[in-house]
């Protein structure tokens, strides 16, 4: 059982791979784009983005996927299965990602933050939108600098760094 998040594993190798998520270690690097990964399986699936290979095919609608997890989640569209249920409000979800994102409604967690103004966000996309539309103190539009941000390189907040900074308003009409 992981001391940091409580997740359990039946195999020691899976547990050791999981620990890299918490340490930030990413020993698997793509030779083509230099992106690094903490888990070899994720790295191998990433290679499909360069080759265009999509080995997982839906027999129901013909859609293809490069990642097994995306294929499995897609199948739930056809079956209607929503295996993730919120204990607090009963709302159901077809993916653990959507479920965990929903939990922030109840906890108030805002794990994404703007390094310029310290404003907090519950979703990575909200931070990206903020960075692309808000003008900060240096009067330089963030979109000129960082609108190419992806979810993987957005800053996650450190709970000890949360500051009560007034929120900025958008200057665009």
Can you give a write-up of this model?
The chain is α+β, with helices and mostly antiparallel strands and 173 residues long. It folds into 3 domains: 1-52, Double Stranded RNA Binding Domain (2-Layer Sandwich), CATH 3.30.160; 54-108, Classic Zinc Finger (Double Stranded RNA Binding Domain, 2-Layer Sandwich), CATH 3.30.160; 112-161, no CATH class. The protein is 36% helix and 9% strand. The chain is built from 6 helices and 8 strands; from the N terminus they run αββαββαββαββαα. It has helices at residues 12-23, 40-51, 68-79, 96-107, 124-133, 143-146; strands at 28-29, 36-37, 56-57, 64-65, 84-85, 92-93, 112-113, 120-121. The radius of gyration is 19 Å and the shape is globular.
What's a quick, concise take on this entry?
The chain is α+β, with helices and mostly antiparallel strands and 173 residues long. It has 6 helices and 8 strands.
Give the secondary structure arrangement, pairings included:
Layout: H1 12-23, E1 28-29, E2 36-37, H2 40-51, E3 56-57, E4 64-65, H3 68-79, E5 84-85, E6 92-93, H4 96-107, E7 112-113, E8 120-121, H5 124-133, H6 143-146
Antiparallel strand pairs: 1-2, 3-4, 5-6, 7-8
Key phrases:
single chain; 173 residues; alpha+beta; Double Stranded RNA Binding Domain; 3 domains; two-stranded antiparallel ribbon; 8 strands; 9% strand; disordered C terminus; zinc-finger; transcription regulation; transcription; Znf_C2H2_sf; nucleus
Shape call: globular
- Please give the CATH class of the largest domain: Alpha Beta
Largest sheet composition: 2 strands, antiparallel
- How many structural domains are formed by the residues? 3
The CATH architecture of the largest domain can be given as 2-Layer Sandwich
Proportion of beta-strand residues: 5-15%
Mean pLDDT: 80
Order of helices and strands: HEEHEEHEEHEEHH
Strand numbers in spatial order across the main sheet: 1-2
- CATH homologous superfamily of the largest domain - what is it? Classic Zinc Finger
Structural class: alpha+beta
| Radius of gyration (Å) | 19 Å
Point out poorly predicted stretches: 141-173
